[in-house]
Amino acid sequence: MRILVAGGAGFLGSHLSERLLGEGHEVLVVDNFYTGQRENVAHLLDNKKFELIRHDVTFPLFVEVDAICNLACPASPVHYQRNPVQTIKTSILGSINLLGLARRTNARILQASTSEIYGDPVISPQEEEYWGNVNTIGVRSCYDEGKRAAETLFSDYRRQYDVDTKIARIFNTYGPRMALDDGRVVSNFIVQALLGKPITMYGDGSQTRSFCYVDDLITGLISLLMKEKNVSGPINIGNPGEFTILELAQLVIELTNSNSSIEFRTLPSDDPKQRKPDISKAKSDLQWEPRVQLREGLIQAIPYFEARIASKT
Ligand code: NAD
Ligand code: UDP
């Protein structure tokens, strides 16, 4: 297949592109490099089946493809809150443009949705039927509501125009190729621990997250993309192992042999208190479940951050 990966120069997009090429597909990456970097796909540039175009998905795009994966959107709270209007435009206008392209080319299209559509959930674990608890006017809303509107658009293009849409709700994912200044918790803690700097703990660290290793996540995304038309989701893709942020900090300190202290800071507003996916649907519909547990995934990711830090100093 000829597959368009929007946001393909980002953390997840670069891993997805690499895996799709490895499976014999042609990959066309479009990215405006807002948070992504050419460096993430530099090793793919010589591959004859790979193409990279600088393009902002809020503008229409005319190419011929068989499948589209929409990963274009800054994902770290620090970055998506830097230009909130652009963030919500990216999710809404980007989805409209790519869904239009899917309709015209008769391509299947996958949306990288998020656990953030559940907001600050009052049930746990979160199953796909749960509608969420989301603030419409807070600092996270540009991301959350943009992703929710994107899910609506995907569902309406399916109902109204019979487009083969697929929605993956991705839970916190980590691994190599996260930018050192990404701002999300796993990369922040590893970089701080390796540099012997204080670990920045927002709030008292009792809030929870479930962390999925990137290789597992990509396997889940591709299995959804390749499913027949009647499998459309939304489907949670994540690792149900649930940890407090304090537990994560302690594990990172242990695995990096760091002497960093933990520095408590103010909890950002609307920071969800708990997050844990119910993955029964992924197990039954995709025959997928994660294999890499947090300790093992961190052990695999830490050398990447060590190398990146060494190359910058
Ligand atoms: P990332 O920030 O590394 O990647 C996003 C990519 O999209 C970057 O390359 C960026 O330059 C590009 N982009 C942003 N706006 C664009 C625009 N208007 N036009 C074209 N390209 C644009 O983040 P990531 O972790 O790789 O996330 C990828 C996708 O997965 C995002 O849509 C995100 O919402 C979703 N997601 C990720 C996670 C996670 O834990 N990593 C969790 C839930 C959902
Ligand atoms: N967090 C933290 N220190 C950091 C970065 C994040 O304590 O340096 C916390 C953050 O407040 C949240 C959790 O870690 O409770 C996960 O944050 P992240 O930005 O990775 O993603 P989120 O799941 O909130 O979108």
What would you note in describing this structure?
It is a single chain. The chain is globular. The chain has a domain at 2-174 and 212-239 and 277-291: Rossmann fold (3-Layer(aba) Sandwich), CATH 3.40.50. It has helices at residues 11-22, 77-80, 84-105, 141-161, 185-195, 214-226, 245-255, 280-286, 294-312; strands at residues 2-6, 26-31, 50-54, 67-70, 108-114, 165-170, 173-174, 199-202, 208-210, 212-213, 235-237, 242-244, 262-265. Helix 4 (141-161) links the parallel strand 5 and strand 6. Helix 1 (11-22) packs across helix 6 (214-226), helix 3 (84-105) runs parallel beside helix 4 (141-161) and helix 5 crosses helix 9. With 313 residues, the protein is of the alpha/beta class. The longest helix has 22 residues, at 84-105. The structure holds nicotinamide-adenine-dinucleotide and uridine-5'-diphosphate. Residues 6-7, 9-13, 31-36, 56-58, 71-75, 90, 94, 112, 114, 170, 172-173 line the site of nicotinamide-adenine-dinucleotide.
